[in-house]
Design goal:
The longest helix is centred in the N-terminal third of the chain and has 23 residues, at 2-24. The two termini are 40 Å apart. This protein has one helix at residues 2-24; strands spanning 26-32, 44-46, 52-54, 57-65, 73-80, 86-93, 105-114, 117-125, 139-145, 153-154, 174-183, 186-194, 204-210, 218-219, 234-237, 240-245, 256-260, 267-273, 280-281, 298-303, 314-322. It has 1 helix and 21 strands. The protein is mainly β. It has one domain (23-322): Glycosyl hydrolase domain, family 43 (Tachylectin-2, Chain A).
Length: 325
């Protein structure tokens, strides 16, 4: 009888552990509204960067304009003491000079902190969105400053990442959406690329690596490192790299969080519910090489506008929670 009772207890414990493990395999995001950079009549804010903290202030950069897309935008920034109440500080970077690769829009910013400076990565296009049919020719550039408040100076090597000249490559049409981490003394620029003739639903994710913040950035020979994903959000997790995959890509990778010891060969570690659109996260270990990075707890994303009411994209907050809702 004692043996039977003990076996029942063991089975119960094993079942409990199994249920708990299954629960922890899902990460759920929940959204919340922000003040200062949220909904505003006739104003578009979208494509927020990852968030950094300088002193007591959180900083975020984003695309701002008057149309729904980012193809007629400039880059602005805001600060916050708590990540919920934001104060818009002004434009960080305007459009490029006429007849340059970035003359018609600069958008989708992200930030790298390295060598005592702030490196603002951004996407630029030369084509005018008013000329239809529109097909963006986006490339990635960098502006640098000694302060997160600017002023920002474009580096001479721009654009630092271009679409491939080989039309068979996954990024032969465009590159966009930089996301940076520092690993083993090198700078990893994860980005999305699209092949000529392919749709936005066929976007894939690659990585380019440099020994210096300003580059040169060299695309990895095993690109694309993830065969899908329309938004790029990565972070150091332990000694490896984790990536959030949204709704674009083959079914077996969508709505997941994936992990790679080497930052290249990713496998699933979590399922994901309610993936944030174009999310940027607070990643305190992104540039430290501490080996102690963890999944972000919160971030910012594009909110879903009510287009029937004429709303334009805006910025919302999101939380990440392991397990049940």
């Amino acid at each position: 009888m004692n043996i039977l009772r003990r076996n029942i207890v063991v089975v119960f414990l094993l079942l409990s552990i199994s249920v708990l493990a299954q629960d922890l395999q899902t990460v759920v995001t929940s959204d919340y509204n922000l003040k200062g950079i949220g909904k505003e009549n006739d104003v578009m804010r979208r494509d927020p960067s990852d968030i950094i903290k300088v002193g007591d202030l959180f900083y975020v950069w984003y695309s701002k304009g008057k149309i729904s897309s980012g193809y007629d935008a400039t880059i602005w920034y805001a600060t916050s003491l708590d990540g919920k109440n934001w104060e818009e500080q002004g434009m960080a970077l305007g459009k490029g000079k006429p007849e340059t690769w970035e003359e018609n829009s600069v958008f989708t910013p992200n930030i790298l902190v390295a060598e005592g400076k702030y490196w603002l990565f951004y996407t630029g296009v030369s084509k005018d969105y008013k000329k239809k049919p529109y097909s963006p020719d986006s490339k990635i550039g960098i502006a640098v400053s000694t302060s997160p408040n600017g002023p920002w100076k474009r580096i001479s090597g721009n654009p630092v990442l271009k679409n491939s000249n080989n039309r068979e490559e996954f990024d032969s049409h465009l590159v966009d959406d930089a996301c940076l981490i520092v690993r083993e003394g090198r700078y990893l620029l994860y980005y999305k690329g699209r092949q000529l003739g392919k749709s936005a639903r066929e976007t894939k994710m690659g990585v380019a690596i440099a020994d210096h913040p300003q580059g040169p950035y060299v695309k990895h020979e095993e690109n694309p490192v993830i065969p899908g994903n329309h938004e790029v959000l990565v972070w150091p997790q332990g000694k490896g790299v984790a990536a959030m995959i949204g709704t674009v890509g083959p079914e077996h990778i969508t709505n997941t969080i994936r992990y790679a010891d080497d930052g290249i060969h990713f496998t699933k570690i979590y399922d994901l519910e309610n993936s944030p659109t174009a999310g940027g996260a607070y990643r305190p270990e992104a540039f430290t090489q501490s080996g102690t990075g963890e999944m972000p707890e919160w971030g910012v994303k594009i909110g879903k506008p009510n287009r029937q009411k004429g709303e334009l994209p805006f910025i919302q907050g999101f939380k990440l929670v392991r397990g049940s809702k």
